[in-house]
């Protein structure tokens, strides 16, 4: 039980939709697969290079007649016949996207170009999972979609945030120049079961540290904020955006805002260890979700306090550490 199964109808109203999910072996992608597979009219194809994703996230679908999994790197051309493309392929955690920054920007630019070329050839609708990182270290708070952002073009995060900004530009240029049907979601920090245990993002770090009875590593100053959305709410927003009438960009995230010190207290009352931060870390982040609310009828349902225990249960199972009686 992780809250995902209860939401929505599986998306895709039309008959016999063939849906491609790039990055579908990853955290959000695999939950999106679960959701879309619930509609018996959908055929789902995942392409993934397994850089940060895993076949394990899709094990319940391997061998299913309406499901196909292809090892493929989106920086290479891809020829398939599909009706919709959810384009998620891209490492999302700072430690992974900084690991090989040139590959990250290639994934964002060449990967998105290839998926747009595919969408153009077959007339598919394409949704890009962009990010709140396009707002950089924002000078407007909360962030609305009309804010253009405050991004360092040459910093260590630029491969990701500038990469996603170019990806958004490509989406709009293909839309204007070639009439491609596009959707852009600007995703804010998302958490839930199946996140990589050691992927370095804050919620997964704190939960794994609490289970291992290690101190929680709060990066300085600890007063920086983020807004955390549970994965079932995120998937619901993405499907509504894809199946709705609006191109976006639309913010999808939970406006509940926490400092990292507050988050540490939500996870568990254990020792906190303050550690050095990384360059260009945004000081605050909170989505304005009026557009998602008005245009998609969407708002998140799961509060941080209710979502964290689902994730803790999943991490305990994977780490083989039962809850103490
Ligand atoms: P994830 O790392 O779990 O998933 C990304 C998937 O893409 C992985 O399965 C990975 O193997 C695959 N991938 C990476 N590069 C690839 C390539 N070149 N070719 C094919 N596959 C490739 O991350 P996630 O959290 O599920 O994020 C999914 C999407 O959502 C990403 O586009 C990310 O930028 C966006 N996003 C996520 C968050 C978040 O908080 N999780 C926030 C903002 C945006
Ligand atoms: N592309 C792809 N699959 C397709 C069609 C195109 O991967 O089904 C790639 C193609 O290799 C190219 C990119 O998408 O690199 C952009 O294609 P487009 O037709 O827009 O541009 P062109 O090929 O004219 O440069
Ligand atoms: N962070 C932290 N401890 C950790 C990992 C991250 O305090 O072990 C902080 C980090 O400094 C940032 C916030 O948590 O301010 C969110 O970081 P994350 O890498 O999860 O995502 P980001 O929003 O930066 O992409």
Automatic annotation (TrEMBL):
Q: Which reaction does it catalyse?
A: UDP-alpha-D-glucuronate + H(+) = UDP-alpha-D-xylose + CO2
- Per the UniProt record, one Pfam family is GDP_Man_Dehyd
Q: Which cofactor does it need?
A: NAD(+)
> What Gene3D superfamilies does the database record attribute to this sequence?
NAD(P)-binding Rossmann-like Domain
Which E.C. number(s) belong to this protein? Answer: 4.1.1.35
- UniProt keyword annotation of tRNA processing present: no
Q: Record keywords: Mitochondrion included?
A: no
Cellular compartment(s): Cytoplasm
- Where the record annotates domain NAD(P)-binding, the positions are 20-309
The annotated pathway is:
Nucleotide-sugar biosynthesis; UDP-alpha-D-xylose biosynthesis; UDP-alpha-D-xylose from UDP-alpha-D-glucuronate: step 1/1
Task: Give Gene Ontology CC terms.
Answer: cytoplasm
* InterPro entries (UniProt xref): NAD(P)-bd_dom, NAD(P)-bd_dom_sf, UXS-like
What are the protein's UniProt keywords?
Cytoplasm, Decarboxylase, Lyase, NAD
Single Gene Ontology MF annotation: NAD+ binding
Return one Gene Ontology term, BP aspect: D-xylose metabolic process
Q: Which protein family is it in?
A: Belongs to the NAD(P)-dependent epimerase/dehydratase family. UDP-glucuronic acid decarboxylase subfamily.
Function noted in UniProt: Catalyzes the NAD-dependent decarboxylation of UDP-glucuronic acid to UDP-xylose. Necessary for the biosynthesis of the core tetrasaccharide in glycosaminoglycan biosynthesis.
**What protein am I looking at?**
UDP-glucuronate decarboxylase
Record organism? Rhododendron griersonianum
- The organism's lineage? Eukaryota, Viridiplantae, Streptophyta, Embryophyta, Tracheophyta
